[in-house]
Design a protein that fits this description.
The protein has about 110 residues and is α+β, with helices and mostly antiparallel strands. The chain is about 40% helix and about 40% strand.
Length: about 110
C-alpha cells in the first residue's frame, strides 16, 4: 500500500511537470507567432488591414537551437486598395534581450 501511494505521487508529479512544460511551450509558441507576424506587418503597405491565418505549434519549425521558421497566409490591402493574400515565412532567432529577432522575412503572392 505504501509503495502504491509513492508510485501514485510520482506519477502525479510527472503529470504536473509535463503540464507545466506544455504550458511553457505554448507561451513560447505564442511569442514566436507574435514576433513573426510583427515582422510581416512591418513589410505590408496597409498593416492595419492584415488578417493572418492560424499560427501555432503546427506552423513553427525548430530548425536549430534557438532558431525557428514560421509560416502562414496573410491577407491585406495593397497600395491600390485591393486585397492580396500572401504566403509569409519568417526565420526568427531567440535573443535574450529582445525575445526574438527576425533574421529573414519572405512574402510571396498566394493565388
Amino acid at each position: 500500500e505504501e509503495r502504491a501511494k509513492i508510485i501514485e505521487e510520482m506519477s502525479q508529479s510527472k503529470i504536473e511537470e509535463s503540464n507545466d512544460r506544455i504550458q511553457r511551450e505554448n507561451k513560447d509558441f505564442e511569442k514566436i507567432c507574435e514576433y513573426a507576424q510583427g515582422a510581416v506587418l512591418y513589410r505590408l503597405k496597409s498593416p492595419g488591414t492584415a488578417r493572418f491565418s492560424g499560427c501555432g505549434k503546427g506552423t513553427i519549425k525548430n530548425i536549430r537551437i534557438g532558431v525557428y521558421k514560421v509560416g502562414g497566409l496573410v491577407s491585406a490591402e495593397n497600395g491600390f486598395g485591393g486585397t492580396l493574400t500572401n504566403y509569409w515565412e519568417v526565420e526568427l532567432k531567440k535573443d535574450l534581450i529582445h525575445g526574438y529577432l527576425a533574421v529573414d522575412v519572405y512574402l510571396t503572392e498566394h493565388y
